[in-house]
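Researcher: Last one for today. Full complex below.
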Amino acid sequence: MNDFQVVVDAVHKGDIKTAVAETQKALDKGADVQEFLDKALIATMDDVGENFSKGITFVPQMLRSAKTMQECMKLLASSFQEGAVKSKGKVLIGTVKGDLHDIGKNLVAMMLEGAGFIITDLGVDVHPDKFVHKAQEIEPDIIAMSALLSTTMPSMPLTIEALEKAGIRDKVKVIIGGAPVTGKYAKEIKADSYGSDAGASVNLAKSLLGLS
Amino acid sequence: MVKRTQYPRPAKGRTKYFKLNVLPNNLWLNIPAGDTVFDALKNHDVDLKSECNGLGKCGKCKVRILSSIEEISQDERNFISQEEIDQGVRLACRTPVTSKMVIQIEESPSDSEYFQILQTSNTSLFQLDPLIHKQHVFLTPQFANKGAATLDRIKLAMGPDYDDLTASLGCLASLPEKLKQTETQGVAVLHEKSLLDWQNWEKLGHNYGLVFDLGTTTLVGKLINLLDGTDIGVKSQLNSQIRHGTNVISRLQYVKDNAAGLDTMHDILIENLNDITRGLLEAAELSTNDIFAVIAGGNTTMQHFFLKLPPDGIAEAPFAPILTDGIQVKAVEVGLDLHPEAQLFTMPMKSGYIGGDLIGTILASGAVEQEDEIILGLDIGTNAEIFLGNRKRMLTCSAAAGPALEGARISHGMIATAGAIESVRYANGKLHYRDISNIKPKGLCGSGLVDLVAVLLKIGVINKEGLIVHPKENRKKKIFSRVIDHDGVNSFIVATAQESYHNKPIYLTQKDVRELQLAKAAIAAGIEILISDYGIRLEDISRIYLAGALGNYVNPLSALQIGLFPPVNPDIIVPLGNAASYGTSMALLSKYYWQLANELGDSLEHIELSSRLDFNDYFIEFLDFPSSNF
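Model: Here's the assembly. Have a good evening.
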């Protein structure tokens, strides 16, 4: 039984009110922030992500859980600044040029954020140069690209080329996803990996960075 | 090479087998001597009509015996006319296989026939004034000897309205020969003030046109009589472009990836259309030279393929096509095999994803010919095209529903052909389903999927969030025994192995429900945006028209129960038949509607959903199933 079971259940259900109140209680009692973050929030979102991959949890429920987690995180924010907890890494994310699909990319961003990554979201219809400029500016660990149309998929290798030209391809891991995208395609265009859904993206990002 | 099942040679003294050749499928079956043709076909899964299941009581299992036959039995005489007896017609259940036999059965309903159910007739609801017309002309002989030019003689004879009559070089060159045959009176084939041909006066009563519905999956051709608006024949076939992609996006991709891709797409399409044309003309005993008018409509990509216009812009944002105008060219320019002067009209379009098919649907709905009512219309396919309004203002959008409602990406989904479960209801603790052609079910088509999920929502097998559940308190209910656990995720058994055609269970999986949720949420969100942009309330909508195959077969109540539409009175939901094709015919049959279609292309207000931030909010809101009960 998890010490933070009430929070865990509340995040699962997307019950913001209970989750926030219980988080405050735990902090007031002097709970270890890192432990709370790992066990109450991140582990729960991992579960949510896994259930999403299986189809048990769906988009609205996952969004509510993610939103609940975000609200709890706000209470932990002061601890972040004091260096009590570590970020897992920086992710630069966007939907590629020519493609306006937003939802899948947003889900991935939320799940990664929920797992402890710091996210910079470039939005949709992102030109390869824009990925490059932002990557040069923030030096992310991972660049995540999304495409929902087979006709916009070719923007992915173009972006990878642009990263190569700018000389920063080997400084980042590139992950890709979206309905028409496959693991095979990721290999073909020399991306580092492919995630089949928002739930899978978390484990993918962690394993690429050598995190458990 | 096709691998055929090897049947063991019958050993001596054991059952004797005879070959049964079944046409038109050209099946060769090995049948134990003495079995009836009915048993033989049933045992080999060949579809045959029957209500009494071989008892000789319904007279439905008629087949034609092409090989030598025995005397007809008394049982059969009750159902078979003398004329049929003479043609070798017998009842399959009363005909034993006693020698090598060749039989002809009715073709099982194919896709094309299924879609033909959607045809509507062009009754005289509107004033006929076709784009191509014929006029009876008397040539006054006195001008013949005064050195007047042939074209001028025709102009004079036709009166002052035709002072500015023109004719193509080809038509002019053929005039002397044709005038010689017709002498003093003939028929001018006209497109506005342009002479297309000069014919014998007897051809006055013949004016035919072709209407092509350029579907991504199915191509439909109609031969219509331009003089009275009736359909003479309808023929459809699978679009052979399918070999280069089942949907518009994958075909656009093919064109992008292959240098000759556009040529290939265009040529395949034209070949299909010429095949359809030949079939229609043969059946009507007409020749290609009898056709002077053809009109075509489809989605914007298909219309680009048809005209061999590079469609690349449609493939990615901002989805810009080359052409949205309705245009008129010579049919020969696109490769259609018709009279050399035949005129081709292509339907006006609005945008990359609002094509001539939707404009046709709007025409057919009558929504833009009145301003008292606000009409909502939907043509549901991989993209759901939606329109809302009336003559004063008409909004459209195209929502990416995905292929779930066409049975694709569903574990046991299929298109609406033989064996597809098309409707489901729940009564007395049991599921009852009806499948197309009444054979054992093979899978679920769109309308069956919508029905099934609506039923399961009502019973509580699926909850509001879309989860397939198996609550403890409900275990007593027999229906819940069909919920099974697959590795922590539930599936619902629609048909057991025994109940199904392929002897394998048909499941509705959790992922299938998710696919349906995505599809219906996209459509519901599109509708919501149109309503909110129009600035009306839901109650202001007087009627909802449904077009396309799904629209005509889906149960409106089930569609409401799963939240495909906002909660309206189900009585206002009306199927519209094959509205795109009907509207396209209207444009060929009436200059008024051709004009109106072109005006619509300009006046429609198109809302690009992918650039709307609120679309995502609505979409997510509508992913859950509605809680209200109907």
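Residues 454 and 541 of chain B are 24 Å apart (CA to CA). Residues 208-346 of chain B form a domain with the Nucleotidyltransferase; domain 5 fold (CATH 3.30.420.480).
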